[in-house]
Amino acid sequence: MNSPLLFLSGAGLPAWIWDDIRAALPVETSVAAYPRAGSLRDYATKVLAEAPERFVVVAHSIGGVIGTQLVAQAPSRVLGFVGVAASIPQPGQSFLGALPFPNRLLVGAVMRLAGTRPPAKVIRSGLATDLDDEQAARIVKEFSPESQRLYRDAVGDHRFPELRGYVQTTADKELPAALQTGYAANLGTTSVRSLPTGHLPMLADPNALAAALQELL
């Protein structure tokens, strides 16, 4: 696959998390910038405005929701789709709606009260659980809150491209492996690679993630 890769990061995460992966892949790559405000459609519209004409999505975490909306809004531009510990809702579902009960109620209530930037302790113990101290500190410092609607807006009707795969993180405290199995099924792929990392494999084991992506693509 020689088409450009468009990386869609998880909520609040800076573009540099993909640096090692991008350096290891022999194709053109870019990392999408998010507006940090507005609806899910606003997020997807901004990404599309700055993306290559046609591209393969590599989506991490809630980036899977944005990627799914890209497929709904511009199906002819998305040539492939790989999820990396990614949330993949069904048509008409949101990120929250794709969580199991009662998690969706609990997470939704916490965000409504406290916003979308978790406390530093929570970021360290969940998102950055298997990172070294320097990486974890940088993630905490540079984490940016996202729009509430990114989590609450439903994705549009869509059909994923033929090329699709999923990288599952089996030590993940943010999106447990069993939940990711369901998301891979929503994507409609049996091409799954498993890595024994937490939620940020691009930092915890970039070589393994780069190899998995090359296999899937």
UniProtKB/TrEMBL annotation:
SUPFAM superfamilies: alpha/beta-Hydrolases
Coiled coil: none
Record-level Gene Ontology MF annotations: catalytic activity
One Pfam family matching this protein: Abhydrolase_6
Superkingdom per UniProt: Bacteria
Domain AB hydrolase-1: 5-212
Record protein name field: Pimeloyl-ACP methyl ester carboxylesterase
Organism expressing this protein natively: Kribbella shirazensis
